[in-house]
Each structure stands twice: as structure tokens, then as C-alpha cells.
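Onboarding guide, step 5: your first structure request.
Type a short instruction followed by the sequence, for example:

Predict the 3D structure of this protein.
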Amino acid sequence: MLGGLVMLILEALASFLTLLLLTRALMRWLRISFINPLGQFILATTDWIVRPAQRFLPATGGFDMSCWVPAWIVQALVVIIGALFGSGFGNPLALLVGALVIGGFELLRNLLHLVMIVVIVSAVLSWVNPHAPIAPMVNALARPFLAPLSRRMPPVGGVDLSPLVLLLILQVMLFLLASLRAHLGGLFLA
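The system replies with C-alpha cells like these:
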């Protein structure tokens, strides 16, 4: 029971750090300014891991490896710690390979959750307070994911339904990702 509680806390902290790292990576990819309260918070909470990683992992084509790789490693470490807290593990090499593969799936899951959060916050802000200080950044993060759907779907009664369609697509992707992760997890961590 105590091991399960420790894993719950560890997974929550790892997911939070991963979401921050992914947000930083997306902001760099989309060239969104960090000069806003949320941007400053993201820089302050991720600099300790990104700055050292920048020495070894350069950004290429807007793709900031110094954010993606640490996020992936964090998720892989959670898998390894979970296996150690669990019923143990067999082959250490299989555990390492499995942790890297499942860590990649967890990274994708967190990315899909981040997109869902951004789309929901963007939609809510557009209805409640479109001039909030955080709104331009959230809208800029959501725009690349919503734009392809918005171009193909006309508004219904003046309401853009593309966020709802995107959320449904993301839910399907999460379901498929969870199924594939469970299958692969059984292969590597059995």
C-alpha cells in the first residue's frame, strides 16, 4: 500500500515536470514568447534540467531536444521505479529497453493530455475572458492543432466546433495509445 502511494506521488510529480518540459518545447517550436507570467513560470521550473541538457542536446529546426529527452528520461525512470516497487523484474536489459519504450508512450500520452488542456483552456477563455493575460499564449499553443479542423469545419450557428472534434480525436488517440502501451508493457516488463 505504501509503495502504491509513493508511486502515485512520483507519477504525479513526473507528469507535472513532463508537462512543463513539453510546454517549453512547444513554445520554442511555435516561437511563443516567454515574456508572460506562465512563460516565466515554465522557464523557472525547467531551467535546472534544460540548461545542462542544452550543452549536449542542441535544438534543430525548432525541435528542442533539451526538453524532449529529459521528459522522456523522467518517464522511463518512473517505469523503472514502478518495476522495482512492483513484483520485481527479471532481465535488467529487458527492463531498460521496456522502460525506454514505455517512457516514450508515456511521453506521447502526456503530450496528448497537454494538447487537451490547452484546447480546453483556450475554449473556456474565449467564452469567459478573451482578454486575460494568459489568453494570447494559450491561443498560440492551441492554434496549430485547431487550425486544420477549423479550416474544414464551418461554424455551426456561429460556434466553432473544432475544439470538440479535436478533443474526441485526442481521446481516441489516448485509447489506442493505452492499448498499445499495455500490450508492449506485458512483453517487456512481464
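Each response can be followed by summary notes, for example: The longest helix spans residues 92-128.
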